[in-house]
């Protein structure tokens, strides 16, 4: 079976992510195959070959099926892997909306898609949207793993309405409090929000290969060990800096 190291958050402390094997599954080669597999909801993994290049239109089609299934009870599919599909901000937002009330999918992996700052913001906002007017965030409390490796995430302009409160990082990601693992490897993130230390269920955060300006080199050396191995020291640093800010205010 193919091994996907570093994707699984719910590992015992003495268990290496590299030893985890992905459940046996069929690799879909077209959008039509993926939609059919999704409708059946009988396999644990939906993985779409990167050659499919489904774009925002394909992501919207997948989101529509996810919405259709939201009220049909529990299915078997828990992992979605959509690498290199040319999914942008619009498609990311649609996937977030499609998963908002989904009770099955616990892992969403979107590596090598041009999602960017805007796409992450819209994806997170759609996932976190309350189910009812005046309800609490997040709406989706099922998603545990979010993979955003090589997704062109970088600071925004700092002037527009979308990013004026947090131009360096899409802060809405912090509303997804059910997440246990976040992969932000290989982006262009320059500032990591200190509030990551407040995420109650987070056990792994991969920020390797990012030009971070607000994390000291000695902390980053440990953080480069990866999701779980590097997180305790990174979290401790973020928490200490966060508390300093509170003490000054």
From TrEMBL:
GO CC aspect terms: cytosol; nucleus; perinuclear region of cytoplasm
The organism's place on the tree of life at top rank: Eukaryota
Keywords per UniProt: GTPase activation, Leucine-rich repeat, Repeat
GO MF term (any one): GTPase activator activity
InterPro entries, alphabetized: Leu-rich_rpt, LRR_dom_sf, RanGap
Entry annotated with the keyword Chloroplast: no
Gene Ontology biological process terms from the UniProt entry: nucleocytoplasmic transport
Name used for this protein in its record: Uncharacterized protein
Source species of the chain: Hemiselmis andersenii (Cryptophyte alga)
């Amino acid at each position: 079976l193919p091994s996907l190291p570093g994707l699984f958050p719910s590992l015992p402390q003495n268990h290496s992510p590299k030893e985890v094997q992905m459940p046996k599954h069929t690799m879909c080669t077209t959008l039509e195959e993926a939609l059919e597999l999704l409708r059946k909801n009988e396999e644990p993994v939906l993985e779409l070959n990167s050659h499919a290049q489904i774009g925002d239109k394909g992501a919207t089609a997948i989101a529509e099926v996810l919405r259709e299934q939201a009220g049909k009870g529990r299915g078997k599919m828990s992992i979605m892997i959509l690498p290199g599909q040319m999914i942008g901000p619009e498609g990311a937002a649609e996937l977030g909306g499609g998963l908002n009330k989904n009770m099955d999918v616990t892992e969403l992996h979107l590596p090598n898609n041009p999602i960017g700052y805007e796409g992450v913001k819209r994806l997170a906002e759609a996932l976190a949207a309350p189910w009812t007017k005046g309800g609490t965030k997040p709406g989706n409390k099922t998603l545990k793993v979010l993979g955003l490796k090589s997704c062109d995430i970088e600071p925004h302009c700092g002037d527009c309405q979308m990013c004026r409160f947090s131009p360096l990082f899409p802060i809405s990601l912090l509303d997804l409090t059910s997440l246990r693992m976040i992969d932000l490897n290989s982006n262009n993130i320059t500032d990591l929000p200190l509030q990551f230390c407040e995420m109650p269920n987070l056990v792994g955060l991969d920020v390797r290969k990012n030009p971070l300006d607000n994390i000291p080199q000695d902390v980053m050396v440990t953080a480069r060990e990866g999701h779980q191995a590097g997180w305790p020291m990174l979290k401790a640093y973020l928490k200490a800096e966060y508390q300093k800010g509170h003490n000054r205010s």
